[in-house]
Amino acid sequence: MSIGTPFHDRTGPLNQKQQWREWSGYFAASVYDTSHIHEYFAIRNQAALIDVSPLYKYVLRGPDALRLVDRVISRDATKIKPGQVVYAAWCDEHGKVIDDGTVARLDDDSYRWTAADPNLRWFELNARGLDVQIDDISESTAAIALQGPQSRAVLSALTGTDWTDLPYYRRRTTKAGKIALDVSRTGYTGDLGYELWVDSKQAVALWDRLMEVGRQFGIHAAGMLALDMTRLEAGLILIEVDYTSSRHALVHEQNYSPFEIGLGRMVNLDKAADFVGKRALVAERAAGGPARRLVGLSVDWQSIEKLYQQQGLPIGVSYSAWREQRPVYDRRRQVGRATSGTWSPILKEQLALASVDAIYSAPGTQLQLEWTVEGRRGKADARVVALPFFDPPRKRA
After folding, report:
1. In which band, very low, low, confident or very high, does the pLDDT at 84 lie, cut at 50, 70 and 90?
2. Secondary element (H or E) of residue 124
3. Does CATH place domain 291-397 in 2.40.30.110?
4. Gap between the Cα atoms of 56 and 114, Å rounded
5. What's the whole-model pTM score?
6. Which residues share a beta bridge with 110?
7. CATH among 3.40.50.2300, 3.30.1360.120, 3.30.70.120, 1.50.10.20 for 8-52+139-222
8. Cα(387)–Cα(297) distance, rounded to whole angstroms?
9. pLDDT digits (tens, 9 = 90+) for 156-165
10. Which CA distances in Å does 39 have to 157, 208, 318, 368?
């Protein structure tokens, strides 16, 4: 049975339609307002609060905490400095991705690790012989994402301090009145934003303070429908949608290496420490790389419109992101599949993430995406484009 997050006393009454989805055993708001488009524009133009408390959260402490992180993730953990956060993936022994998340170095010997799925047992198995303590803080720590171009102004008003000096993917502790916070300049929207980590008992008080100081900046609660649109614009993958965890894969094709899902930049095969899956990834690279790659697709609007015209219908594309798999063709045969997509209000185009044969992964390649109108399948022209689709300078400035 799903339960409310530590913010539920505030998010519950805000949810006008009571539209919820399940996220790791918690209620997550699909949309608060009458339309999620209002929430989307709050993220892109103002400031938005997104409850991300259902993330699994772990703290690793001890002399061998670094060795454990370096043994599990594919990137070089020795380069993570205190106060730094990195995005990482971790694999099974076959080099297939189990999960992805962030690792924040809190000090010399402690780390906070977030994940989409429960990973405590995996971490403990890999901690054999190491002097490290692993604590699951998923329930005791709440998390709220403060995202959007006005997020820095809201955070400054909340804490009474300047945040222009906190670089992208860095973190530091602060206080909002008497509420202790850990703030990381991270997020899942591809925009300027922060994630605030707080004791669950202080969650409601933090929400109230954020709403109070954020009112002048147009702050708005945002749900999963708006978040899905923004993460797609940012070219960010979603587990069990754009790739399947190797734990859940039922057939070979559902297993993905980091190189197949756009995470190759996070694989440091030359780092000193061995890590789980390294041999398989070395072999994959030696063989010329994976046979399929993650790409972005820009779908031609006129070809979508033509599919509706052929049935005598006005175009009726949903503003909600879609997550079903759709075949991708090179006009002659299927060469991959799109995994999720959305209409982008800010870019004014239909976007999709797709897994395609490697020879079709170069930007500019012309493909076709299956598009169904009232039960009749058609093909819309699509062009491979570089990711991310949307990458505003303010995200890193």
Report:
1. very high
2. helix 120-126
3. yes
4. 6
5. 0.97
6. 61, 107
7. 3.30.1360.120
8. 9
9. 999 999 999 9
10. 21, 18, 16, 31
Reading the block at residue 56, the tokens are: 């699994």
